[in-house]
Design brief:
Helix content: 10-25%
CATH architecture of the domain at 341-594: 3-Layer(aba) Sandwich
Largest sheet: 8 strands, mixed
Number of strands: 36
Shape: globular
CATH superfamily of the domain at 341-594: Alpha/Beta hydrolase fold, catalytic domain
Strand order of the largest sheet: 29-30-32-31-33-34-35-36
Radius of gyration: 24 Å
CATH topology of the domain at 341-594: Rossmann fold
C-alpha cells in the first residue's frame, strides 16, 4: 500500500457510532457501527458500560427495530448495496438473527410492532415494482397477509395503542406526505389531518395511553414545528413550538410523557432542547460539542441518549442527565489517534447569488491566497451539507486544498420557500449558484481562479456535470459519483417506485421533456473542457449505471479526457473499504494532478 493509500485508509477507516436506540426494560441501548468493516448492531450496557457486538450478519445493517418489551429485534439488511432490505428477527435469548421477511428481488420497509408483539407490519413492492402494499405478519405462524393495496408508495409508521389500526405515511411530492389511519378490521382508510396545502409530517410520537399524539409539520408555515393532536373528534393540530427560520428536525417523548426532547437544525448545526408539556415551556441543553444530532432516545425519564457527529467527531453516542445537566460521551468508536489531530472545523460562510439570494457554505482548509479549491456538492437534491465528519473533505483539506461545501438553493434545512427554489424549470438556478460561489471564493478568499475543481455524488454528480457544461470556463477538473447525465433517461430507467416522486422535483417526462433535453449534460458534452473522473455502482437502483456509461461513451467518442470506474459489488452508496480506498485515492491523485 502506498503512502497516500495508507494515510487515506486512516481517514476512511474511522468507524463511528450512530442511530442509538434504547432497549426497553434493560437499561441498555443499541447503535450501529462499521467497526467490523460493514454496519452491524452493537450494544451498550448502562450498568456495566460494556460494549459488545449485537448482530453478526453477512452484509450491511440498514435498520434496527426493538419490540416494546425489548426481548426481540427486527433488523433490516440488504445485499451488495442494492437497498433491497430484507428483515431478520433476533431474540434476546440467542442473539442469532433468523430470516423473517425474505423476498430477495423486492424492497421491504419495517412498519412497527403490534402492542402485544404478536405481529409486525411492513411494506413491499412484490405486486409491482412501483406499488408498495402493506403487509402484516403473524410471528407465531410466520404467515403474511396484505392488509392494504395501493398503486403507489406507502409506509406504515406504527400501530395505534389499541392494536386495531395502523398509521400510514403516503408521499404527496418529493418532500411532502400525508398521514392516514387504516382500520385493520374494517379495512377502512381515512386521512389523519385534512389540509388544503401540501406539508411535511414527520417524527410521530404517541402517548402511552393512546389518546394523544405529537409530530413535526410545516403545514401553513415555512418551517417544521412541534404540534399535538388527539385521536378524538377532528384530529385538529395544535401548535406547541416553532422556531423562526429553522426547522425542528426530531422529537422524542419521554417515558412518563411529560417532556419532549427536540433538535433544531440551525444552518447545518444541531441544537438540543426539551419542551415541558405540562408547563408548555422549553429550554436548551448546553454542553454538547457543536455538530449534528441524530436519533434521540430516552434511557429513562431523566436521561437522554443521542448520536452526534461533527467535522472532528465521526460519530459517537452521548448521554445527557437533565437532573444535573451533565453531558457524557459513552462510546469512543470514532476515535483515530493517528490522524484526528489533523481534522479541521470549517468556517461557515455566505455569498450573494445572481438574484440577491444569500447562500451558505462550509469552507475547510483555507490557509493562504492563491490556493487550489475543491467545491463539494451534496446530493438529494433536497438534502443538506451538514457539520459532519467527511473523510474525503478532511483529507483534501489536510493536503493543501481548500474545500467549499455549499447548500445551494433547493437544499433542505432553510424552510419550504428555499427548498422549492430549484424545482422543475428553475433547475439551472441552483447551478448558477455554483458559478457565483466560485466567484466569491476568488474575490473573498483569494482562491486561484485557474485551480477550482468540483465534485459531487448522486444529484451532486448531476450538478458537477451541469456546471462543467454550462459554466465550462470556471472549472479545472470534475468528479462525478453515481450522477445523472440526462433526466429523461434517468427517469425512464430508475425504479418506477421512485419515478413519480422524483418528477415532482425534476419535472415529468410528459410535460418537461423539451426542458430535459435543453439542460441535459449529455447533450452539451462538447462544451466540457476539463478532465472528468466518473464512478458508479453496478447495483445502483436509484441512478442506473447506464447514466455513467452513456456519458463516458459520448466523451470518449469526442476524444475527451474521461475515466470511468464501475464497482461491481456496490449500489448507490459505497460501503466496502477497499472500494472507498480505490475511489478516493483516485480522486485525490486526480485533484492533485489537475489543480
Amino acid at each position: 500500500m502506498t503512502s497516500l493509500n495508507q494515510d487515506l485508509y486512516k481517514y476512511l477507516n474511522v468507524r463511528g457510532a450512530y442511530h442509538p436506540q434504547v432497549l426497553p426494560n434493560q437499561q441498555a441501548l443499541t447503535f450501529i457501527s462499521k467497526k467490523t468493516g460493514i454496519p452491524q448492531v452493537w450494544k451498550w450496557d448502562a450498568v456495566t458500560t460494556k460494549i459488545q457486538q449485537y448482530s453478526h450478519l453477512p452484509d450491511r445493517v440498514l435498520s434496527v427495530h426493538h419490540s416494546p418489551s425489548g426481548k426481540q429485534t427486527i433488523i433490516g439488511m440488504d445485499e451488495k448495496g442494492n437497498e433491497k432490505q430484507q428483515l431478520y428477527i433476533l431474540h434476546e435469548s440467542s442473539l442469532n438473527a433468523k430470516e423473517l421477511v425474505i423476498s430477495k428481488e423486492h424492497f421491504h420497509e419495517f412498519g412497527g410492532w403490534s402492542p402485544d408483539e404478536s405481529k409486525i407490519a411492513f411494506t413491499s413492492n412484490r405486486r409491482h415494482p412501483g406499488y408498495f402494499d402493506v403487509f402484516i405478519m403473524d410471528l407465531e405462524t410466520k404467515t403474511e397477509k396484505v392488509v392494504y393495496q395501493i398503486d403507489g408508495n406507502c409506509t406504515p409508521i406504527g400501530w395505534t395503542k389499541d392494536g386495531e389500526q395502523l398509521i400510514l405515511s403516503m408521499p404527496d411530492t418529493n418532500i411532502d406526505q400525508s398521514y392516514y389511519i387504516l382500520n385493520l378490521e374494517k379495512k377502512k382508510l381515512f386521512k389523519l389531518f385534512e389540509s388544503n396545502s401540501l406539508a411535511r409530517y414527520q417524527s410521530l410520537q404517541l402517548s402511552k395511553n393512546g389518546e394523544k399524539g405529537f409530530l413535526l409539520t410545516d403545514v401553513n408555515q415555512n418551517t417544521l414545528g412541534i404540534h399535538q393532536f388527539t385521536f378524538k373528534g377532528t384530529y385538529e393540530l395544535q401548535q406547541l413550538l416553532t422556531i423562526d427560520k429553522w426547522d425542528i428536525e426530531e422529537i422524542k417523548l419521554s417515558p412518563d410523557n411529560s417532556l419532549l426532547a427536540f433538535t433544531i437544525n440551525e444552518g447545518g448545526y444541531s441544537r438540543l432542547g426539551v419542551y415541558d408539556l405540562t408547563k408548555q415551556i422549553h429550554r436548551y441543553i448546553d454542553g454538547l460539542p457543536i455538530g449534528v444530532i441524530d436519533s434521540l432516545t430516552w434511557l429513562n425519564d431523566n436521561e437522554i441518549c443521542l448520536g452526534l457527529k461533527s467535522p472532528i467527531i465521526p460519530g459517537d453516542i452521548w448521554k445527557i442527565s437533565l437532573e444535573n445537566n451533565q453531558v457524557e460521551r459513552i462510546t469512543f468508536m470514532g476515535e483515530e489517534k493517528d490522524v484526528e489531530h489533523l481534522w479541521q472545523e470549517p468556517e461557515l460562510c455566505t455569498f450573494t447569488s445572481f438574484d440577491g439570494l444569500e447562500v451558505s457554505y462550509f469552507l475547510y482548509g483555507k490557509k493562504k491566497n492563491i490556493q487550489p479549491v475543491v467545491v463539494y456538492v451534496h446530493g438529494g437534491p433536497e438534502s443538506q451539507i451538514r457539520a459532519e465528519y467527511n473523510p474525503v473533505i478532511q483529507y483534501l483539506a489536510a493536503n493543501g486544498f481548500a474545500v467549499a461545501a455549499p447548500n445551494v438553493r433547493g437544499s433542505m434545512g432553510y424552510g419550504r420557500t428555499y427548498v422549492k427554489l430549484d424545482d422543475v424549470r428553475k433547475r439551472m438556478d441552483s447551478v448558477a449558484d455554483l458559478k457565483w460561489l466560485a466567484e466569491d471564493l476568488v474575490h473573498t478568499h483569494g482562491a486561484d481562479p485557474k485551480r477550482i475543481g468540483i465534485m459531487g455524488r448522486s444529484y451532486g454528480g448531476f450538478m458537477v456535470l451541469a456546471a462543467l457544461t454550462h459554466y465550462a470556463d470556471i472549472w479545472a477538473a470534475g468528479v462525478d459519483i453515481v450522477g445523472i447525465s440526462h433526466f429523461k433517461s434517468f427517469l425512464q430507467n430508475t425504479g418506477s417506485w421512485r419515478r413519480k416522486l422524483r418528477e415532482f422535483e425534476y419535472g415529468s417526462l410528459k410535460e418537461d421533456g423539451e426542458f430535459f433535453e435543453e439542460i441535459a449534460p449529455l447533450n452539451h458534452t462538447d462544451k466540457i473542457k476539463v478532465p472528468l473522473l466518473i464512478f458508479h455502482g453496478r447495483n445502483d437502483t436509484r441512478v442506473p449505471v447506464s447514466e455513467a456509461e452513456q456519458l463516458t461513451a459520448d466523451l470518449k467518442e469526442q476524444g475527451k479526457q474521461v475515466e470511468l470506474f464501475i464497482f461491481e459489488d456496490e449500489g448507490h452508496q459505497t460501503e466496502k473499504i477497499e472500494n472507498h480506498i480505490k475511489m478516493n485515492t483516485k480522486i485525490v491523485q486526480f485533484m492533485q494532478k489537475f489543480l
